[in-house]
Amino acid sequence: MRKILYKFQSQSEEETISFAGKLAKEIKAGDILLLRGALGMGKTVLARALIRCLCNDLDMEVPSPTFTLAQAYDSDFGMIWHFDLYRLCDPSEVYEIGWEEALGEGNGVALVEWPERLEYLLPESAVNVSISAVPSNPESRLIEVVRS
Predict the structure, then answer these.
(1) What does the pLDDT average to over 36-56?
(2) Which domain holds residue 9?
(3) What is the domain count for the chain?
(4) Residues paired with 127 in a beta bridge
(5) How far apart are CA 145 and CA 139, in angstroms?
(6) What CATH number corresponds to the domain at position 96?
(7) Which site among 87, 134, 141, 146 is 20 to 30 Å from 19 CA-CA?
(8) Whether 33 contacts 127, CB under 8 Å
(9) Burial readout 36-59 (b: 16 or more C-beta within 10 A, e: otherwise)
(10) What's the CA angle centered on 91, arms 62 and 40, to 5 degrees?
(11) What ranges in the chain are assigned the alpha helix state H?
């Protein structure tokens, strides 16, 4: 059963960061968040803000995992994994970057940018976060969060 948690229209990067604070309160241990959206929609901005909120450190250095494909952060909440799968050529490559460890812990959180690259490995149960441009205002973003 799908449950819509949020529908939010962000007018700026700052509003997206603020929204991450609300969303962080809804995240549960073991959650996998699938961050969907075209290039430049703000997936990394949202992921970075979520990681900072979950680690209780709003000034924390959170580099994009574009080149490393994965970053892990220790927190009171558990291990937080941030995957950027844009450069993944084959879904099975995800096992080389900590996928099994991230999903096997059960008490942490996984944030996954470009989840469609997982193809047949896409988790059935996840929180889907879709970010899209608002047609009438291309600088605004519509963020929809659905728990499946």
Answers:
(1) 95
(2) 3-147
(3) 1
(4) 33, 147
(5) 19
(6) 3.40.50.300
(7) 87
(8) yes
(9) bbeeebbbbbbbbbbbbbbbeeee
(10) 45
(11) 13-24, 43-54, 99-105
